[in-house]
Amino acid sequence: MQIIPYVLYVVILAAVINGLISVSPRDWAFLPGSAANPAPARIDKSKQPWPFATTATLLVTGIFTALQFPFSGVLETLRRNPQAFASGEWWRIVTPLLVHSDGWPQIVFNFAAIAVFGVVAECIFGHWRWLLLYLVGGIAGEIAGYAWEPLGAGASVGLFGLVGGLLAWQLLSLATPRARIAAIVGLAAAVALLVVRDIHGCATLTGACLMALLLWQVWARRGVSSRPVSSRQ
């Protein structure tokens, strides 16, 4: 039974990769062409700003994670703890994102995945949308964690908030059938994670809903259709 969440993690991440490679990286724009504006925005990689949100998040998380080894109190002070949270330690709704309770495999995976998917997400969404997806998705995952995994910690829920945003963007904005099918598969896997009471399902679906809202807001402001137009397959 415990292998099921890991299989679903792989399905979700593979769905993001599958959707991304369905088009050229030059077409990884937040808003490709729409019915009102059929010319998709194209990304000039030479003009892309440094991924400050990804870099800063990895740096801050790395500092706190490193400190938990010589100073065990760091992990105990920042991880999820229902009794401490109920007694007024409100910061524990956010600080579990900064430390890791499951050792080196968790640390290596989270940092590598954030470095890869985080840079891609920031390239597409920009700094502030990146932070919004990471923090809102992460906090949603931590809230679920207090119900399902009350003593854990780790940055992976923030990562899956970003991944959920990427899946929703693929479904709603990236104009290829392959990207949309991949997104549907990934989101279905996130729902399956909810069914098995895994906090990453909550983080993924929160990120997806938030991205849908962000896209709708931009489309409504510009007065264009949410349906992209593309002949790419």
Short synopsis of the structure:
By secondary structure, the chain is an all-alpha fold.
Tell me the layout of helices and strands:
Blueprint: H1 3-20, H2 52-67, H3 72-78, H4 82-86, H5 104-125, H6 127-148, H7 156-172, H8 177-195, H9 199-222
Q: What does this 3D model show about the protein?
A:
- The protein has nine helices and no strands.
- The protein is an all-alpha fold and 233 residues long.
- It has a single domain, classed as Up-down Bundle (Rhomboid-like fold), CATH 1.20.1540.
- Helix 2 packs antiparallel against helix 5 and helix 6 packs across helix 7.
- Residues 34-41 and 229-233 have low confidence and may be disordered.
| CATH domain class name | Mainly Alpha
As for the number of domains, it is 1
Class by helix and strand content? mainly alpha
- Proportion in β-strands: under 5%
Unreliable residue stretches: 34-41, 229-233
CATH topology: the name is Rhomboid-like fold
How many helices? The count is 9
Largest sheet: none
CATH architecture heading: Up-down Bundle
Distance between the termini: 37 Å
The tally of strands reads 0
